[in-house]
């Protein structure tokens, strides 16, 4: 956790406490925030991409086959994707079940 | 042909088939569940790609993307203070202009983006924004409007709608909540006579991305006002955030339009607007409102919609069928 | 060190006269300062400007309290401003007026030497505008010799561009026409 | 080759900025700094300076715009005074924290109320904790020289901090005097081009100004504090180099007839030259009076001050602003703390002089010395006094 909490010597800081590792927030597992998880039924999916384009957490990424991959590492479980899926192909299920 | 129209004459918009894959903001950011402000920012920056420099006002989008030592930013980003994102990005733009002219750097047609929330734009940052727009810097300014100071705990701003409950506009025996009408910031931006102004909603992502792209293409300042639903502050479940945003458009509470070279253009005609009540009832920030108050809000929304139609030169009768997106 | 105080009205060019005097001195390798009475600039209001000229570097940053020379660009100021304040007894009071030095000396009880010139008449003749700032420089040189007359030529021409020639002519004419107290 | 010219100091400041070839100027007009801004806009308009001149809508935006420009890698300048400085203070703290080598000329002036457009050091004192390097000019030549020096120090990779060059409002800004203006080549020979260490560049994305969580804020401030301390040798080195290039010598504390002085005056800014005259007058009468002038205000020149003051019996610190703490002026407080740390205990009198454009004369300095020596002999308590105040 040392890295995550930013504990380091003042001598190691970049100029003006800038961060010079672009996008390293991607190390953070915001999936821990989730109590409900979206589960995609690829049988129902029509590859419309609304889950991808409407996700505030960049959880979905396009795949070569046109479907969208879901990354639980980041998913906070907001449920927008399930609510907006025109085919009800995404279901929110309780974590731990 | 005037400047913006000239720059946009061959404009090719996005569709779901050609969304750029690059995410300028990485996942792992700390925005709330269902944060539509983050979604709006994500979509706006996706439309612009890697060749941008971003200046952020203090606010939710600053604090959730940059707590040391992690940054969600994959593009160059600077935060200085609350009220000055427009001034900071003015300086960045001017520096690039001077350095490129003097041959000190290559001219790479970087897009310069400043953004702030409604507080950082409509209240404390209005002067810096007005200055930047008036001076004609080639910048894109995004206002991510979640209608209150959400970062500090949901205090009212001048962009908070009438009747809304916030922590500094609490309803009570002598208060209906926010006692003033929402400041019309896009109209204020348009009054500067800048080449491009638009309103956009993440509920219409392609429309939003296209507008931001247009904002970047026009020479000079451009302003895009983005409706940023905030489940935390608006008191509704996060999963309906996009539904709320769509309802804001469907009820004419947040109409979508562009102002190109001073010409007002409605993005979505809405011949059968839904009652404002449908929008209000989704959010607990309005739940204390009486039917009488709701009627008052309805009247105001109708009046503003008519004024907008007039500006756009459209009559209600000729309003065409609602235009769908390719989504 | 010679210390000069100029009196004029805002917009009449007293500050310019001060500046030109300092520039003339500096161009001759001397040390000089010129500065206005600091404050908001208001057209018509009585204003002062100050000059110091010295062969040594000037250290003082005070206002000029005891001038060796006082130059009055506008005769109407004689009635409303104490132009003699602090003026050294052996110094010079140089006034734009139709009156003779003797008349001025008697009317205002001047202890210092007096020089007069009808700068307004010269300005109208040569420049065709009632602005006496460059004209009065000629009188300043005649009475005090603080800088040589020709040292004004370049600063005046630089300041006034195409009108420089005429302004320097007015300056020279005033030099010739200035009456000194006998 | 450079040239000796008669020139208003504000104009000379602007001409110097053109010689330095800055890239971006963002400024707002405020009396008495206005002439600097006007002349810079003129120099840009007529092509003598190839820069973006941004006539911002406020000082707050002036500094914000400079921060943006400097972060993008531009050599940046602004100028302000008084209330304008007060408005930009928020961003001044940020500019130094973000380590941006902005240079600013401040035409020192009082703060409202009552509103006064005239000279004192209230704004300089307001700036004291902002983390900027601060130098002080005593005359027009100093302004030119210190501006050139400022860029050399600010942009040095061992420093990378903003520099504020103080010049007394009106007394210097509106003064015409002889000034040696160097040539562009001479300036270039002394001042290398600015090479930013970090800049906003899409090819190399960096996040500037992130949230300083408690785990890092203290370290960030420590790093900044060390940077300011480490700036001192670079400031001195740059002055040494300046002397080699231009023949004029600057030191953090400059002295005048101070060696054997029993009573030492300590002044800041343009009144120092008037004080020198007072010293001459008193020396002529055989009095052992000397003068120390503070040239470098930030970082505070502790060692230099100690070595100058240690032999004096009486020290007179002349403040040009009030501290509103009820016991001492802001400069004197710092001087006293420095002397305490080094076990030096002269009799210290603190005079607050020249507030809001009140002239400080030769006689004023003489009477400060008279009064201090008298109080010291009578062992009166050390205190502060506003001089020339009407009862």
Give a short synopsis of this structure.
The complex is a heterotetramer of chains A (97), B (327), C (182) and D (391). Chain C has 182 residues and is of the alpha/beta class.
State the total count of DSSP E strands of chain B.
Answer: 10
Query: Which architecture of the domain at 29-94 in chain A per CATH?
Result: 2-Layer Sandwich
How many distinct helices of chain B? 12
Residue share in β-strands of chain A: 15-25%
- CATH topology name of the domain at 29-94 in chain A, in short, is Alpha-Beta Plaits
Classified by CATH, the class of chain B is: Alpha Beta
Helix-residue proportion of chain B: 25-40%
Mean pLDDT of chain A: 93
The shape of chain B is: globular
In which order are the strands of the major sheet of chain B placed?
Answer: 2-1-3-4-8-7-9-10
Separate helix tally of chain A: 3
* N-end to C-end Cα span of chain B: 32 Å
The largest pleated sheet of chain B is described as: 8 strands, mixed
Order of helices and strands of chain A: HEHEEHE
Task: Name the helix and strand elements of chain B from N-terminus to C-terminus, one letter apiece.
Answer: HHEHEHEHHEEEHEHEHHEEHH
What keyword list fits this structure?
heterotetramer; C: 182 residues; alpha/beta; Pyruvate-ferredoxin Oxidoreductase, domain 3; seven-stranded mixed beta sheet; 7 strands; D: 391 residues; Rossmann fold; six-stranded mixed beta sheet; 12 helices; repeat (chain A)
What this model shows, in words?
- The complex is a heterotetramer of chains A (97), B (327), C (182) and D (391).
- Chain A is an alpha+beta fold and 97 residues long.
- Chain A has a domain at 29-94: Alpha-Beta Plaits.
- Chain A contains three helices and four strands, in the order H-E-H-E-E-H-E.
- In chain A, a hairpin with a 5-residue loop joins strand 2 and strand 3.
- Chain A is elongated and about 55 Å long.
- With 327 residues, chain B is of the alpha/beta class.
- Chain B has one domain (4-312): Rossmann fold (3-Layer(aba) Sandwich).
- Chain B is built from twelve helices and ten strands.
- In chain B, the strands form two sheets. In chain B, strands 2-1-3-4-8-7-9-10 form an eight-stranded mixed beta sheet, sandwiched between helices. Chain B has a two-stranded antiparallel sheet with strand order 5-6.
- In chain B, helix 2 crosses helix 8 and helix 4 runs parallel beside helix 6 (126-135).
- With 182 residues, chain C is α/β, with parallel strands linked by helices.
- In chain C, helix 5 crosses helix 7 (164-177).
- The longest helix of chain C is centred in the first third of the chain and has 14 residues, at 14-27.
- The radius of gyration of chain C is 15 Å and the shape is globular.
- Chain D has twelve helices and 16 strands.
- Chain D has a seven-stranded mixed beta sheet with strand order 3-2-4-5-7-6-13, sandwiched between helices. A six-stranded mixed beta sheet of chain D has the order 10-12-11-14-15-16, sandwiched between helices. In chain D, strands 1-8 form a two-stranded antiparallel ribbon.
- The longest helix of chain D has 33 residues, at 214-246.
- The radius of gyration of chain D is 21 Å and the shape is globular.
- The mean pLDDT of chain D is 97.
- The chains are: A alpha+beta (97), B alpha/beta (327), C alpha/beta (182), D alpha/beta (391).
- Chains B and D meet through strand 1, strand 2, helix 4 and helix 6 of B and strand 3, helix 3, helix 4, strand 9 and helix 8 of D.
- Chain C: GO terms for molecular function: oxidoreductase activity, acting on the aldehyde or oxo group of donors, iron-sulfur protein as acceptor.
- Chain C: It holds the Pfam family POR.
- Chain C: Keywords: Oxidoreductase, Pyruvate.
- Chain C: This is Pyruvate ferredoxin oxidoreductase gamma subunit.
